[in-house]
Amino acid sequence: MKPLGQSRPETEIYMDLCEKMGKLYGEKGYIDQINQALSLKEQFRLPLDRKPTVEQVLDAWARSKHNIRLEELQVKGVVSNKVKADKLYMSAGAKPFNGVRAAFYVEAFLAVGQEMRKRGVAEEMWSRFTPYPVWTEQPMEASPADYDLDLMDCKRIEHKHTRTATNPLLRELRPDNPLVMNAHTAHERGLKDGDPVWVESHNPSTGETRQVRTNLATVEGIRPDTVLLTHHVSRPEDPSANGLLSFGPGFWDIGGGWFSHIKVKVRKAEAGGNGRA
Amino acid sequence: MEACKVENNTPEGTFWMYVFRLEDGEYPNTRTYFLPRPCQHCDNPPCAKVCPVGARYKREDGLVATDWQRCIGCRYCEVACPYGVNFFNWKSPKKRYYLNWQDKDLLPVLNGVTPGYQNPDLEKRYGSEQRRIAGGGHAKGVIEKCTFCVQRLEQDLQPACTANCPVSVLNFGDLDDPNSKVSQLLKQRPHFRLLEEAGTHPRVYYLGEKPPGPETRQIEAVKGKV
Q: Under a CB-based contact definition with an 8 Å cutoff, are residues A227 and A180 in contact?
């Protein structure tokens, strides 16, 4: 983020904005919201008439939640507490029938769909909100037959997603982002480990194609009908699985996500260079 | 690999500790596994035998050390070693390898201060011989390799790779002490050493049934001077 090294904590920016908008102080102001959002105990609540520093906010949280001062926490690094498994792992909220049965009919989806319809959303969108589960053909199944490989994305062990992709030390361990393919599949297609390749995806809704250029890495430990390309890249022009995904109609689901399952075809590229078409 | 690099400030492309990603078998009966390869600190080190100036030598405690002040850069050790753990410094690490501190975007932030990290312990003398064996500043024209972090051992610390392994795969200790953890592990578990047939008597043991064989492939190699 520019200017380099001068970015500010987001909470500080929000407080400045709220102050200018007259929404920082007093009841229901932003400071009050912080007190509630962090569930601060009464004695650690931030005064509603003074703008705190970010350190003061974190200190109040550390004292209230973990009974430790911020500066102690910064030295210690971690706080450990015993947590019961049902607190740690996400549950599906209130469990109907004491968790003995899973809800099959979700009225909330029906309500959302009806509301969308009322507000004039396209039928293609609202009709997907059904209270019962409905089988939907995966959009990639409509791609031409030569898009015959499933594309899989994963997190590389060397990286913490794209967050570490610009770390020079970690980039040394994983400087490139190869397309991983089963060795036999590669052999059948006249490809070998290290070959430059074009990976092409297809959007059956629009006919649009997307291409990414990278090098091939062949392994035995991947399904013959599947290829792997990660998204850990540090520059926009680097090859990334993201460059192959399609968005928009046909590629979303009612869970708020989208169908990122796509099919690709792979062909040998001329030597030299990586990136996206 | 990273703990080693940070502790020993090794230049870009140099991995005193290298982790091989290996694969056996054919789909679907495949096995992927990892093999860390530091210097094997052999009891019969061919690298020390060929060193014409005694820069490479075996210490009493078992470490195979390199006196970077004595080394003349002939690279005989590199040829003699069957494990490929020697790295020759073709140039001086004058500039920082990983960041350009003169970058115009960085200069105003640094305000004249260069934060380049250099471990001062690497320059010191170690052991009863008081020789410079911890890598120093990676001078041009000398050979270097894993020291088992001698600068840490002499402070009763574990080597950086061992201390930082998140899954405690690496163990370091005294094999001459039958009660040490490493001796106990070798008593309890099947183990092997790399290229035992070479007669080098490596002091690095791998817990496991069998070493990688001719059918083993390296996959997704890290591009260093391996």
A: yes
Buried-state track A225-242, b at ≥16 Cβ within 10 A, e below 16: eebbbbbbbbeeebbbbb
Look up residue A113 and give its amino acid: G
Closest Cα in chain B to A156: B220
Give the separation between CA B18 and CA B39, rounded to whole angstroms. 10
- Check if the beta carbon of residue A184 is closer than 8 Å to that of residue B27: yes
Other Cβ atoms closer than 10 A to B139: 15
Q: Roughly what angle, to the nearest 10 degrees, separates helices A30-37 and A10-21?
A: 140
| Beta bridge mates, A265 | A200
A22, A28, A29, A30: CA torsion to nearest 10 = -140
Flag if A4 and B109 touch (Cβ within 8 Å).
Answer: yes
Q: Does A172 touch chain B (CB under 8 A)?
A: yes
Q: How far apart are CA B161 and CA B172, in angstroms?
A: 10
Say how many C-beta atoms besides its own lie within 10 A of residue B162's C-beta: 20
Distance from the B219 Cα atom to the nearest Cα atom in chain A, whole angstroms:
7
Quick: pLDDT tens for A17-47: 999 999 999 999 999 999 999 999 999 999 9
Write the residue in A6, A184, A217 that is nearest to B220 by C-beta: A217
On whether the pTM is more than 0.90, the answer is: no
ipTM of the complex: 0.83
Query: Which residue, A267, A210, A204, A203, is CA-closest to A243?
Result: A210
Asked whether the beta carbons of residue A178 and residue B26 sit closer than 8 angstroms, the reply is: no
Backbone dihedral angles phi then psi of residue B89, each to the nearest 5 degrees: -85, 100
Nearest to B27 among A2, A3, A220 (CB): A220
Round to the nearest angstrom and report the end-to-end CA distance of chain A. Answer: 26
Query: What are the pLDDT digits (tens) for B35-66?
Result: 999 999 999 999 999 999 999 999 999 999 99
Residue spans of alpha helices (H) in chain A:
10-21, 30-37, 54-66, 70-76, 85-88, 107-118, 123-126, 168-173, 183-188
